[in-house]
Every structure is written in structure tokens, then in C-alpha cells.
Amino acid sequence: VQLVESGGGLVQPGGSLRLSCEVSGFTLDYYAIGWFRQASGKEREGVSCINRINGSTYYTDSVKGRFTISRDNAKNTVYLQMDSLKLEDTAVYYCNRGSYWGQGTQVTVSS
């Protein structure tokens, strides 16, 4: 099982980024996938997840209306579209399936 994040970078406040989580070693259709983030000196927190059965989604309050999670099972990829980024969104972002984690991708929001 592998999860590989990409798409992080440096962006100004109000900007956008799209993170990708490409998975391998399992069939994406069968699993819920989550995005987490960890800012420097803080605990890792859940950001969003997408369920396997009906594609229902969850967002933590601080990102509702700004972030959108989606999945493309044919491409074995889960996306996190992040709009209207704020300074406090700066963190390493990880995708997750149960006990499996990716290596993370750094998102830095700075003017």
C-alpha cells in the first residue's frame, strides 16, 4: 500500500492549490481516504475525508466552503482543492487510509 502526495508549494493568502494523493497497492473504490495536516509545533488534525460508499464528504469547520475533496477512482487519485488560502493553512498535508500514511506535502501560505 502506498499513498503519494503532491501539489504543495508556496502561495499568497487568497490563493489556491490542488493537492493530489495517488494511491497504489489497493483498489481506491473500496476505501475512504482522508486528508490531515500538521502545522509546526501542533498536533496533526483531520481536514477532510471522502467515503467509499456514496462519496459523501466531511470537512473540519475551519476549511468548510474553501476546500473541496474529490476522487477519481480510474486514476487512483484523491484530490484536495484548496481555495481562499489563509496563513493558518500552512502545514504539511498528508493523505491517509487507516494505518497507512503518505510522506506529506508542504503547503506554505505567505505574503
Q: Tally the helices: what do you get?
A: 0
Structural class: mainly beta
Computed Rg = 13 Å
- How much strand content do the residues show? over 45%
How many beta strands in the DSSP annotation?
11
Order of helices and strands: EEEEEEEEEEE
State the end-to-end CA separation.
Answer: 37 Å
* Rounded mean pLDDT score: 96
- Shape, principal axes of CA atoms: globular
Unreliable spans:
none
Percentage of helical residues? Answer: under 10%
Largest beta-sheet details: 7 strands, mixed
What does this structure look like?
The protein is an all-beta fold and 111 residues long. 0% of the residues lie in helices and 51% in strands. The chain is built from no helices and eleven strands. The strands form two sheets. Strands 2, 4, 5, 6, 9, 10 and 11 form a seven-stranded mixed β-sheet that branches. The radius of gyration is 13 Å and the shape is globular.
Secondary-structure map with pairings?
Elements: E1 2-6, E2 9-11, E3 17-24, E4 33-38, E5 45-50, E6 57-59, E7 67-72, E8 77-82, E9 91-97, E10 100-101, E11 105-109
Parallel strand pairs: 2-11
Antiparallel strand pairs: 1-3, 3-8, 4-5, 4-9, 5-6, 7-8, 9-10, 9-11
Features of the shown structure:
111 residues; mainly beta; 7-stranded mixed β-sheet; 4-stranded antiparallel β-sheet; 0% helix; 51% strand; globular
Give the structure's gist in a few sentences.
With 111 residues, the chain is mainly β. The chain is built from no helices and eleven strands.
